[in-house]
């Protein structure tokens, strides 16, 4: 009795997911609206948060309990940055895909690079977020998100290149000072 | 009206399969079939299997046992083909994206293996609804196949949505049709197998299965044959409004370190 209810519920949830994705595909968000969703990020602050030397310094200076509390706060901030970076990557992947069909070969190639970098960052963001949450449970563990910074920097480079090719006067910004 | 072997029953059994054969012929003529050959094979085999089962159902000389043997063979072949089609569609989806292609294939493979294991556990706990093994096991196998199929399709949709991968129209249409079909069929087979339904209740579920399949065939017609509107290219301004040159100069300097 219970089994068929569980299976029917699974099917209903699956149907809701499939219909939602289909509707989102049928009603694409305009590029300008998408662009407004990009959240500028402070790369330096992020770099500081994931700096292993900072963690070592804090570990040496603070008592164990205080260190864990501070490390958890830093990890929560790191997770927020990673989520934002991942969300930016998703928007840029979307925009880049729309620019793939550009007639200008250089723009199309820049769009391809942007999409590849954005997808790589999105993938790294997922893994880094997972590691960050694990580190939150064990705050004495090592740095969680070193790889994501490199990906984010590469993505910045690709976005700027595509922006310059599409409009030499201005560029895309996905980081904040 | 909603009786077994009524006009509507016969229509819902035969018409979608004839339509599927027509679709296969049209796809072959237009060359669309070459893009996803496994779907062409599925369309032909599914249509032939459905029509063969209908013939076996209405022909008095075919025994009940032989009918179920035919149904078993059709289910096994169609299920294998459906998994081939979903695999091919997923390969088409991730192939252009080198950065997620490998990880995507690996994630879906592991996910599929996990689904098979969970499906086997669900099958082991399923109710045996008939004294004749060939009938009860057919119901349980159908439930398991649709469970795994639905899980895989949802996994693929979520993977594509997470990475914002763009679907080509035929691939999306095929998977959308399979997804809708799997949602309804999983519910129907789960209820049929595990709930003690009356004969009329079972007939109603058969109607639901056949109607859903009919809708799916029409969805495939729409996605595979009706041309889509070409999306307008992204305006340059959309990617170049934030003009903070000072910050970008700093960032470029950082990237070159």
Overall description:
- The complex is a heterodimer of chains A (177) and B (257).
- Chain A is mostly helical.
- Chain A has 2 domains: 1-29; 37-166, Four Helix Bundle (Hemerythrin (Met), subunit A) (Up-down Bundle).
- In chain A, 78% of the residues lie in helices and 0% in strands.
- Chain A has helices spanning 2-26, 31-36, 43-49, 52-61, 64-99, 105-137, 146-166.
- Chain A starts with a helix and ends in an 11-residue tail after the last helix.
- The model of chain A has no long low-confidence stretch (mean pLDDT 78).
- Chain B is mainly alpha-helical and 257 residues long.
- Chain B has a single domain (7-255), classed as Up-down Bundle (Rhopdopsin 7-helix transmembrane proteins), CATH 1.20.1070.
- Chain B contains 8 helices and no strands.
- Chain B is globular and about 55 Å long.
- Chain B starts with 6 loop residues before the first helix and ends with a helix.
**What is the H/E order of chain B?**
HHHHHHHH
Distance between the termini of chain A: 59 Å
- Overall geometry of chain A: flat
Biggest beta-sheet profile of chain B: none
The class by helix and strand makeup of chain A works out as mainly alpha
Task: Quickly count the helices of chain A.
Answer: 7
Write down the overall geometry of chain B.
Answer: globular
Separation, N- and C-terminal Cα atoms of chain B: 76 Å
User: Largest interface: which pair?
Assistant: A-B, 58 and 61 residues
Q: Remind me, CATH topology of the largest domain in chain A?
A: Four Helix Bundle (Hemerythrin (Met), subunit A)
Please report the total strand number of chain A as a whole number. Answer: 0
The percent range for helix content of chain A is over 70%
Q: What gyration radius of chain B follows from the Cα positions, in whole Å?
A: 23 Å
| Count of folded domains of chain B | 1
Radius of gyration of chain A: 20 Å
Oligomerization state: heterodimer
**CATH architecture of chain B, please?**
Up-down Bundle
Structural domains of chain A: how many: 2
Low-pLDDT runs of 5+ residues of chain B are: 239-257
| String of helices and strands of chain A | HHHHHHH
